[in-house]
Write a structure and sequence with these properties.
Elements (H helix, E strand, L loop, with lengths): L1 H20 L1 H7 L5 E4 L2 E5 L5 E10 L5 E12 L6 E4 L8 H4 E2 L5 E3 L4 E9 L7 E13 L5 E14 L7 E7 L3 E2 L5 E9 L9 E7 L4 E7 L9 E8 L7 E10 L6 E10 L2 H24 L10 H10 L1
Parallel strand pairs: 2-10, 12-18
Antiparallel strand pairs: 1-3, 3-8, 4-5, 4-7, 4-9, 6-8, 9-10, 11-13, 13-16, 14-15, 14-17, 17-18
Length: about 325
C-alpha cells in the first residue's frame, strides 16, 4: 500500500514537471495562425475597356510570424442554393482570373502587422455584359516553413459589366414566429431566388404593426448578395421588441428588379407575455385565496346605532 502511494505521488510530480517545462513546446505546436482581411466582399461595376484599381488590407491576427501567398480563383454559383464552387483555370477560356492583376510572390507578415496589397482589374473592350465572380485568396504558413493552402482567407470580387443583362428575383416562403411569449429577439426569414443573369442584393423593410394598425417596428433588410440562379435564405431580426400582447402583422417589402420594383408578403403572429401573465395570474390567485380564508375564518356584523329621537320618546312615556 505504501509503495503504491509513493508511486502515485512520483507520477503526479513527473506530470506537473513535464507540463510546466513543455508549455513552450505546446504553445509553438498549437500556435494560432490567422489574419483579418478588408474588404471581405467587393461589389464593383466596371465598363468595357476600363480598369479598376484597388487594395486589400491584410492583418496578421495570429501569435506568430507568417508567410503569405496570394492567389486568384474563379467561382461559379450553385443553382438553387447560396453556395458556389471554385473553378480551376481552363485553358483557352478567358475568365475574371485573367483580368485580375496582383503580385503572387510570397511575402512575410509579422505579428499584428498590416499590409496593403494593391491589385488591378482590367476589362477587355470585347467583354460581354453581365457578372463575373472570383476570390483573391491569401494562404498562410509559419515563417520559414511550408505554406498551408488549407489556412486561407480572401476577398470575394463581384464584378458587373454594364450592358444588356437581366436583374430580377422573387421572394418566397416568408416566415416568422407563430407565437411570441417573451422579449427575446424576433427573427423573420424569407427565401430570395435570383432569376436574373447578374448578382442581386435585395433590399427593403419588414414593418410590424398591431391589429389596430399601430406601427411597432421597421426592420431593415440589406447586405445579402444572391448570385445568378442561386437561392438564399435571408434573415432580419427585431433585436429588442417590447412586451407584446395580441395579434400582429409583419409586412415584407423587397426590391426584386434593378428598376426598383417591389414585391410584398405578409404574415400574422400572436403574442402573450408569459412571465408577466403568470405573475398577474399568481397575484389574482393569492388575492382569491386571501379572500376565501378571511371569509371562512372571520365573521363581520354591522351594528346599528339607535337614533336620539327614539330614545327621547321613550323617556317622555315614562
Amino acid at each position: 500500500m505504501k509503495k503504491n502511494l509513493i508511486f502515485l505521488v512520483f507520477i503526479l510530480i513527473f506530470a506537473i514537471f513535464t507540463l510546466a517545462n513543455g508549455r513552450e513546446f505546446f504553445n509553438v505546436a498549437f500556435a494560432n495562425q490567422g489574419f483579418t482581411i478588408f474588404p471581405a466582399k467587393l461589389s464593383i461595376e466596371v465598363g468595357k475597356g476600363s480598369q479598376y484599381n484597388g487594395e486589400i488590407n491584410l492583418t496578421n491576427a495570429g501569435d506568430s510570424d507568417i508567410v503569405v501567398l496570394p492567389d486568384v480563383q474563379d467561382i461559379l454559383p450553385t443553382s438553387g442554393s447560396s453556395g458556389f464552387n471554385y473553378l480551376p483555370k481552363a485553358p483557352g477560356i478567358t475568365t475574371l482570373v485573367d483580368w485580375v492583376q496582383i503580385s503572387k510572390k510570397p511575402f512575410a507578415l509579422g505579428i499584428n502587422e498590416t499590409k496593403k496589397i494593391p491589385f488591378t482589374i482590367k476589362i477587355p473592350a470585347d467583354a460581354s455584359a453581365g457578372s463575373r465572380f472570383a476570390v483573391i485568396f491569401f494562404a498562410t504558413g509559419a515563417a520559414g516553413g511550408q505554406l498551408s493552402v488549407s489556412a486561407r482567407t480572401g476577398t470575394v470580387v463581384l464584378l458587373t459589366i454594364p450592358g444588356d443583362f437581366k436583374q430580377t428575383g422573387e421572394i418566397t416562403n416568408f416566415r416568422g414566429p407563430g407565437f411570441v411569449r417573451d422579449r427575446n429577439p424576433i427573427a423573420f426569414k424569407f427565401d430570395f431566388n435570383n432569376t436574373g443573369t447578374v448578382y442581386f442584393e435585395p433590399k427593403g423593410t419588414i414593418e410590424v404593426t398591431s391589429i389596430f394598425g399601430k406601427k411597432m417596428a421597421n426592420i431593415e433588410v440589406a447586405g445579402n448578395v444572391v448570385l445568378p440562379t442561386g437561392m438564399r435564405t435571408i434573415e432580419a431580426v427585431w433585436p429588442k421588441p417590447l412586451w407584446l400582447l395580441g395579434i400582429y402583422k409583419a409586412h415584407l417589402a423587397i426590391n426584386v428588379t434593378g428598376k426598383g420594383d417591389i414585391a410584398t408578403k405578409n404574415l400574422t403572429f400572436y403574442a402573450l407575455p408569459l412571465y408577466p401573465s403568470l405573475g398577474a395570474l399568481g397575484i389574482v390567485i393569492v388575492l382569491i385565496m386571501i379572500a376565501f380564508y378571511v371569509k371562512k375564518n372571520f365573521k363581520f356584523t354591522i351594528a346599528k346605532k339607535k337614533s336620539k329621537s327614539t330614545s327621547g320618546q321613550k323617556d317622555k312615556s315614562l
